[in-house]
Design brief:
The complex is a heterodimer of chains A (338) and B (319). Chain A has 338 residues and is of the alpha/beta class. Chain A has 13 helices and 11 strands. Classes of the chains: A alpha/beta (338), B mainly alpha (319).
Chain lengths: 338, 319
Amino acid sequence: MKLTKMSLALAGLMAVAIPLATAQQINAAGASFPAVIYQKWFEEYRKMHTDVQINYQSIGSGGGIAQLTAGTVDFGASDMPMTDEQISKVTVKPLHFPSVLGGVVPTYNIAGVMQDLKFTPETLSGIFLGAITKWNDPRLAKDNPGVKFPNADIQVVHRSDGSGTTFVWTDYLSKVSPDWKSKVGVGASVNWPVGLGGKGNEGVAGTVKQTPNSIGYVELIYVVQNKMAYGSVKNASGSFVKADFNTVTDAAAAAAKNMPDDFRVSITNAAGKNAYPISSFTWLLIPSHIPDAAKAKTIKAFLQWMLADGQKYAAGLSYASLPKEVIAKEVKQIAKIQ
Amino acid sequence: MATPAVADTTVIGRRTTQTGDIVARLITFAFAASIILITFLLVWQLWSQSAPTRHKFGFAFLFTSTWNPVTEEFGALPFVYGTVVTSILALLISVPLGLGSAIFLSELAPAGISNALTFLIELLAAIPSVIYGLLALFTLVPLMRDYGEPFLKSTLGFLPWFKGPVYGLSLLTAGMVLSIMTIPFIISVSREALLAVPREQREAALALGATRWESTWQIVVPYAKLGILGSIFLGLARALGETMAVTMVIGNDPKIKASLFAPGYSIAAVIANEFSEATGKVYQSALIELGIVLFLLTIIINGVARLMIIATTKKGSKR
């Protein structure tokens, strides 16, 4: 009796163990901004291909690049394109695949101002450089007729943690303001001329909400989910555009014409009538050579699916989907994976 | 007849204790050694990983106050300042409050109330720090901005520490949050120390005609001094290393300003904030070197604390 019980238990164990052993495990790590849609994609993909399991650790873009460089993951993910120096340190050259898009928006809390404000590159960079210090500054009033600005100091709020959001924001300010470029520059963390730091989108949004007459910047996805007020920004074509999924996608479409072959491109300040100027891709970083043939096949199949059916999940999760021009170009790049 | 029997059992007993002793000694030695090994590995890792900035900046790292990841210029001074100032503020608030509560709970309160309150205080110690941070951001920060700091400014505004614009997010607010977080440690450890004072000490004082308070303050508290100091250092250790709660309310601005109303930054907060997105060797190395600085700061403060204990206990025994 005991023996049969034992063998039954063993058989049971084996029955559990066999599918686990044959399931293909793929590990990925990186950016936290797209983590929600990546998890969704990997889950949906698993439903269709029960033998494939892709694990994603949302540890930040820097961590994703570091793990890819160390070879501890099958692919990485980043909100910032890798620099030439970073690529040179990876033994197998990584390919950049834009997966979805995000936007960064100015959000504010001004006593007595309920309207959506309009910002120009000059006013945004002026405020964040500390050159525009009062809300009733004539430069702000000029773009916002009818808004009664208080005679109050502007309190700037920025991210304190290193983030892709800050990278996009400072990348935009560097493009539109030579002063910003020379004094501050671009980075996931920078030396802020003015302001308080909040940790994460929730830290910035919370601080803005708590501090009268303040302005900060957060991801579009965050203001959409929390139904917060935010301003529109004047783009390179001279029109004021409010960020939403369509205007962010338009920015990518506008930039698609001059897209470099490796997709390492900043699409901030894109030309195009409806292009929202503070937009960015987020990228999957896939090694160009994957020694395990089965893994290579799976990753390629996943990329095909992500660029076609996968994009349909974007809007539901508050991400902007890729424009078709970019998708067509990316599909060609899949063939480069060996 | 009885004597050899006793001798026999002791021999047997000794034999077993000897082997038992050796085994126990080896095991406990291995455990103790592993702690030293872990500490050593930790320091070695921090030291070797921070080589780029140690070579690039040398001791200037400790005394400069620029923190610019874009140009890769790094200085630790504003973070050291923020860490030390917020921890001192925390202790200034939490030591009197915590010690007072501990005295009440151990000496004066009825047992039922004392036990109920102690249970609640121990619950406070178990709350994750991010909860304290969020609570502080949404309740303490507006209170400090609208009432606390303007009040200090109007009453003590002639002092350099209470000048300048008020944001709510400040060194002072961070110190207050830390004090709330350290109080449970100070209360529960101090209370244990006070309860451990022998009953005879109190009875003797009362018999000599001391009042209840005189016996508590002059006999019981000095007797429990070591335990109370220990509780303060435990609180201090928590304050120095606290990350999430501090970063939520300190303003995260690496500048040194005399005013306690100004935003600041702490070592633990900047490491937590920037490490995950720190790309580039020098940047990462700067953050790791900040880890060494925090480690050294903790060692120095603990060392000073030890010296203080030695000095005060010696004085006590002479008297």
